[in-house]
């Protein structure tokens, strides 16, 4: 039983990535009680901070105590009654996840798909909505499995026109790519901390519009053992999960402070600090930092003679897919980067398994030194595998991006 | 956006309580990747440590990423198919919670109840099992709402006799009261960190016997997007939750390391350290420390002329219910303790609301100084409310317990 001792990895995969040191410090804070005014004040402050992160006025903005997929499941099982139609446009692994979670809720799940490496045009989604008339549109913004960023700005208006609730998961993209809850008329959004927000997995911020809240609240049910006479029964089909019952979780985060779970205080402290890190640096500056780091990594990869994956016009700023060149052992490269240089890059899933690496530039690691370390280490490891490249070209190209950005 | 600043509370309620400082330190550790050998080694080590905490040989011993009720829901929704009979003996709020979670899974839920402040005799449970013939018996070991500790040692044999799966939640009791998974033939147990284990809420250790694992595995289903040709479909009714699908979570913690959620690494570091704290101090010594602190608090309370709640033969070591005396404003006492002395004690739920306080002595706070501070502060606050007591009697009685223990 030795003390925890971990190697100093530089995490340049698709997430999780290294936490901001301030986030780690915040998570070492001693607890107070869950209904202590000091705690409930921080709960309220965290709600306010995430309204700013999500760019929303939504009152119902808080944390789900679990990893990012806990947020997804909470949103979907709380709104989807058995038999409800949901449309899931799929452009990567996480689209399948949304569909699967909705299926398990016994929703009537309809999917449309584009090949991995592409995104949907709004017209494709509108056509499917007209045809299917779903209660909910569920789509991810950024899918790390393909590195693609689905444009969402036109979908809210389409959803309003056809009276569809618009849900999106922005775990992979938030903080590194624009996200506008209110402007885009998003009805519910969930995220995690472990990508561009620079925290650990384990807390899932969520924000819900009044329309979405209404759809959930009609299923409201207070649990036996803490139910008082003024609590009335549910109108809609009872939400199948207690843990993910957003109606009850709203009561916990609301004025009534009705006991549900015991808030995961350490994760709340971490979540709060992620928001503070983003907002005190400035949302626009953080976005620009991610765009520069992502472009520098992309240009560096290309300068090394490597080919990026997918439709680059729709790539997330914070991750790039890189084809593993012929004759190169992709797993050996990852192994060498990890064991020689303490640098982690990502492998891939499903149809891309064994075909591409995924290299991230997220949160704390969206930094010039992290980009340069990664490019020169990748060059060294590839050279030792016999892959020939122009020496130093990756780093030079990345530095040129930073120089241009500095001049601009 | 000021740095996180919390008052130095002494948390003497029914939990959460103050974390061990070593646990807080562990949670400030920088991350590594989720499939990094350094990470998976710690995952394996954490499994081994919790086998020792649970006193079991069960291979399937790991963490659910959520608060303690996430563990409860994972166990129940993974084993209970719609229509399956479950027996829930209820002796407090958390019994209702088990029943409610099982109801939401559309199980056929049968309950038996004893008044708050009592526990069940094994014969009562056996009689109900014979009558109902459930697939699962679900019962909590310690229910903080009543402070009672249900004896479990005879229930495993009864469950085996009638081919019932025996599930228990030991969140409130583990670490402060004996728990013997294998000796008691428990098929599944879930806990949280925020009581006697001295960590924060947000991680739920679980252990499952082979019988329980078998009942879950027949419902095994690998999610689309990561499914390979060698993954076959489910045999039993598909588990309704993706997040709480223990069959998939076993694949993630097992050799296949099949991607499910992204492990909440910070909570894992905290969970591991809770186990290390318990096991390096020694399980028997930690139990004795809780028993002494709990007895000292009880004797102190009685010496102050206050009346403890419930059947003291079956009280958990780590929490005592205390009747609020006539003429005393219970909430004012709690307010004064918090704001004058930075000490938190607990209020109550349901039928006990407004009638008793709950005072805990758990984990890091199962210490003589914490007991004495609480007793003398309670005395001061009560005296200022006009309640008359023999001066210093609470502290004297508690010190006598510690003196006896030291001599013994």
- Quickly give the structural class of chain A: alpha/beta
Number of helices of chain A: 13
Q: What assembly state would you assign to the polypeptide chains in this entry?
A: homodimer
Rg of chain A, rounded, reads: 22 Å
Helix content range of chain A:
40-55%
What would you say about this model in short?
Two copies of one chain form a homodimer. With 408 residues, chain A is α/β, with parallel strands linked by helices.
Question: How does this model look, in words?
Answer:
Two copies of one chain form a homodimer. With 408 residues, the first copy, chain A, is α/β, with parallel strands linked by helices. The first copy, chain A, folds into two domains: 263 residues, Aspartate Aminotransferase, domain 2 (3-Layer(aba) Sandwich), CATH 3.40.640.10; 125 residues, Aspartate Aminotransferase, domain 1 (Alpha-Beta Complex). Helices cover 40% and strands 13% of the residues of chain A. A seven-stranded mixed β-sheet of chain A has the order 2-10-9-8-5-3-4, with helices on both faces. The interface between A and B is large, with 88 and 88 residues.
Keywords:
homodimer, 408 residues, alpha/beta, Aspartate Aminotransferase, domain 1, two-stranded parallel ribbon, alanine-glyoxylate transaminase activity (chains A, B), SP_NH2Trfase/AEP_transaminase (chains A, B), L-serine-pyruvate transaminase activity (chains A, B), transferase (chains A, B)
